[in-house]
Design the sequence.
């Protein structure tokens, strides 16, 4: 069920619980601004989620309320994960769903990193 990204941040969402250490994750990377972990239902040979440490519902919320330091730290973390995993040469895809039409299911900003083989067309209908 897609979330409503205009609602206030809900601390019970699954990624908030992972950040608090209440739920396990397969961690890939962590720094002061971001946590990266493998998606539980991978949709590509490599499927990593990168989330900011702050309480942001979506890309929209993050871009509006986060500090310049948080935004720079998060963007750099996404790129670092991809670089550290050796994905740059063959390429990768980033995706951030926002709200109902995108199918966003978790109400904490997350950027998907897909890689590990040809990823097909950008959208399938
Ligand atoms: P969205 O559709 O919101 O952009 O993507 C949510 C993603 O979170 C999905 O790809 C889903 O598989 C992943 N996900 C949902 N719950 C968990 C979880 O508990 N652990 C991990 N690692 N991934 C999750």
Sequence:
């Amino acid at each position: 069920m897609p979330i409503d990204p205009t609602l206030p941040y809900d601390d019970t969402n699954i990624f908030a619980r992972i950040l608090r250490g209440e739920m396990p994750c397969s961690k890939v990377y962590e720094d002061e601004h971001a946590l990266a972990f493998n998606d539980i239902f991978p949709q590509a040979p490599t499927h990593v989620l990168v989330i900011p440490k702050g309480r942001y519902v979506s890309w929209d919320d993050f871009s509006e309320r986060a500090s310049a330091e948080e935004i720079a730290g998060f963007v750099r973390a996404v790129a670092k994960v991809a670089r550290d995993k050796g994905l740059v040469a063959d390429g990768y895809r980033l995706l951030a769903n926002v709200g109902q039409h995108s199918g966003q299911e978790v109400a904490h900003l997350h950027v998907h990193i897909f890689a590990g083989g040809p990823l097909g067309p950008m959208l399938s209908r």
The beta strands are 27-30, 34-38, 46-52, 93-95, 111-115. The pocket of guanosine-5'-monophosphate is lined by residues 14, 25, 37, 39-41, 49, 97, 103-106 (CB under 6 Å). The chain has a mean pLDDT of 97. The two ends are 19 Å apart (CA to CA).
